[in-house]
Design brief:
Blueprint lengths: L1 E5 L3 E6 L15 E6 L1 H11 L4 E8 H13 L4 E6 L5 E6 L7 E3 L12 H8 L6 E5 L10 H8 L5 E5 L2 H8 L5 E2 L3 H7 L7 H14 L3 E5 L5 E4 L5 E4 L12 H16 L2 H16 L7 H11 L5
GO molecular function: ATP binding; phosphofructokinase activity; tagatose-6-phosphate kinase activity
Protein name: Tagatose-6-phosphate kinase
Family: Belongs to the carbohydrate kinase PfkB family. LacC subfamily.
Length: about 300
């Protein structure tokens, strides 16, 4: 089972105005609300692919209850701890016709360390062989080492995947996660550098392995993706051809595809194949892709008939 944790989930509101004029009045026909947050996105796609998963984390207020309801309607089990104060954030994704998307991401509720105790109790009940995904930014009211703390709450034998950035990623890396997945910008941010190109990504991914990460995947946008395995192998994949609709959730889908492929195949090469298909399928969609879209891309690009 794959248990995902999102400390700062969201309702993602997608709008498509005919034109977007900052400072003016812009109109759109309708809004589409979808569950949001990195771990939530991972669980949504895993569920669509038929994997056993639970989306967990912290919610608050009527927006948090709507988030949980949307997950239920999508058939994705949820296990969120609800705060008594505050609101789960709303992220506005503006997708004007023929122009780049604009994202307005909201802040979340105040979370105290004590609010995490019920979540830590849940993590303590995970079983050997389960996978724990800790994904997304750390709320400002929590310390940067919170993911490292949550890793310590899980029993031995639970493999951990961390998808975050900055100091929170460094703190988690020191706990030896099974997999981390920064993008190129996040990888450079860890070391206070602006990175360009595959060679720079490889060199800095190796530095994260030296700090404790076992496997490091780096997404490179139009440059594809790479994976440094704990056995010392370098695997690379080109970006799949297609028309990008929205980049929202593509990196999260990459993580979901990797875990699905890893569980299904127990092979890092094939896990990376599934990962790039999942990331591309979401990039070619509005919202998180469906499992059949991922499977179609996998058959088209990686399945070799004997």
């Amino acid at each position: 089972m794959i248990y995902t944790v999102t400390l700062n989930p969201a309702l993602d509101c997608f709008v498509r105005p005919d034109e977007f004029l900052p400072g003016g009045v812009c109109r759109y026909d309708s809004a589409r609300f979808l569950p949001g947050g990195k771990g939530v996105n991972v669980s949504l796609l895993l569920k669509s692919l038929g994997a056993e998963t639970v989306a967990a984390g912290i919610t608050a207020g009527f927006t948090g209850r709507e988030l949980t309801a949307l997950l239920g309607r999508a058939g994705c089990p949820a296990d969120f701890m609800e705060l008594h104060k505050g609101l789960t954030r709303v992220n506005i994704k503006i997708l004007p016709k023929g122009r780049p998307e604009t994202a307005l991401n909201g802040g979340g509720p105040e979370i105290a360390l004590g609010d995490l105790r019920p979540l830590e109790d849940r993590l303590a009940r995970l079983q050997k062989g389960d996978l724990l995904v800790l994904a997304g930014s750390v709320p400002g009211s929590l310390p940067e080492e919170v993911y490292a703390r949550l890793m310590g709450a899980a029993p031995r034998g639970v493999e951990t995947v961390v998808d975050t950035s900055g100091p929170a990623l460094i703190e988690a890396v020191r706990k030896g996660p099974f997999l981390i997945k920064p993008n190129l910008e996040e990888l450079g941010e860890v070391f206070g550098e602006r990175l360009e190109g595959t060679e720079a990504a490889i060199a800095h991914a190796r530095r994260l392995q030296e700090l404790g990460a076992r496997n490091v995947a780096v997404t490179l946008g139009g440059g594809g993706a790479l994976l440094l395995t704990e056995e010392g192998r370098l695997l690379e994949r080109a970006a799949l051809p297609g028309r990008e609709v929205s980049s929202v959730g593509a990196g999260d889908s990459f993580v979901a595809g990797f875990l699905y492929g890893y569980i299904k195949e127990r092979d890092m090469d094939k896990a990376l194949d599934w990962a790039v298909c999942a990331g591309a399928a979401t990039a070619f969609s509005e919202g998180i892709a469906q499992g059949e879209q991922v499977e179609t891309l996998y058959r088209r690009h990686f399945l070799i008939e004997n």
